[in-house]
Design goal:
The structure holds two protein chains of two kinds. Chain A has helices at residues 6-17, 23-33, 40-58, 63-88, 91-103, 105-116, 122-140, 145-150, 153-170. Chain A is an all-alpha fold. Chain A has two domains: 6-57; 63-170, no CATH class. The model of chain A is unreliable at 171-177 (pLDDT under 50). In chain B, 53% of the residues lie in helices and 13% in strands. Chain B is built from five helices and three strands. Classes of the chains: A mainly alpha, B alpha+beta.
Chain lengths: 177, 109
């Protein structure tokens, strides 16, 4: 397997993404990669998945204030993203994009939840539900004053809160090994 | 609050494989368990963090290859696995054995 192969590039990306505290595991995966007789691409993709999941897992180490800070940062990023996207494109289109941003992480969370037999907290589930309904209403009636006034930001806040809570819950110490 | 849950099927596969004793490399474990690397390594990471698996770097057999990470169960991991087997044999009544094992090893299921 050459250093420039697509699988090798994906593996390097996985090593780069891996959280600092698990760098030794990234090195272990990278070393094992060179001993594989076949299946390099599947192995590299699995390593990339492991690295991404390690970040999700590390949310549990943040603690209450760290989690709140994460939610706050995500909220600020979301609001600024909404405002920027609304400035450069149609407001309705911006909201549609944020709906996509809402939906996209759900399969990841559901897969992770299924794999760990974990459940969303009622608060996270309520956030997801309320946010989804709210977004659907805003998209269904884009030209109403309410939709224009409320915009997407509050719903994105719910999204951020729900994702952070769900991630923390799914990877809490009660999750299965 | 920690909750004790039975380990997943994938984790049990890894436990059973490592229970054979000796050091195993990642590729050997992937082949033996049929798991993907995206499943195996997160399991190993969590098991190591919970003190059930130990890892060490081993020099390669073939020259020119990098050193490899190898894994084996710790005594706590063996105890945990024994508790699971006891639970399988005795049914729900044996769950206390797992609870005792978990309490003894500090390894939540």
């Amino acid at each position: 397997m050459t250093q420039g192969s697509p699988a090798a590039h994906i593996l390097r990306l996985a090593v780069w993404i891996m959280p600092q505290k698990r760098r030794s595991w990234a090195a272990a995966m990278a070393a094992e990669f060179h001993h594989l007789p076949q299946g390099h691409m599947a192995f590299a993709l699995g390593c990339l998945w492991s690295a991404l999941m390690s970040h999700l897992t590390s949310v549990r180490d943040l603690g209450r204030f760290g989690l709140l800070a994460l939610i706050g940062l995500a909220f600020l990023a979301s609001v600024s993203g909404t405002l920027v996207s609304a400035a450069v494109m149609d407001w309705h289109m911006a909201q549609a994009l944020w709906l996509l941003a809402w939906i996209a992480p759900l399969p990841l969370l559901l897969v992770q939840g299924w794999r760990q037999s974990a459940r969303l907290t009622p608060l996270a589930a309520a956030c997801l539900l309320a946010g989804g309904i709210g977004m659907a209403l805003v998209l269904a009636f884009p030209h109403t004053d309410l939709a224009q006034a409320t915009g997407t930001a509050p719903l994105v806040l719910a999204l951020c809160a729900a994702l952070a809570l769900a991630a923390a819950r799914l990877t809490a110490s009660g999750g299965r090994i | 609050m920690k909750r004790n849950r039975p380990p997943s099927r994938e984790t049990r596969k890894v436990l059973e494989l490592l229970a054979g004793g000796g050091w195993l490399h990642g590729y050997e474990m992937l082949k033996a368990t049929g798991l993907k690397s995206g499943s195996l390594y997160p399991i190993l990471m969590r098991m190591e963090e919970r003190g059930m698996v130990e890892a060490e770097w081993q020099e390669p057999v073939k020259p020119g290859r990098p050193a490899r990470h190898a894994y084996r169960l710790t005594p706590a991991g063996r105890l945990f696995r024994a508790g699971l087997v006891a639970c399988d044999v005795t049914g729900p009544a044996g769950s206390s054995a797992v609870a005792d094992t978990v309490a003894a090893t500090g390894a939540p299921a």
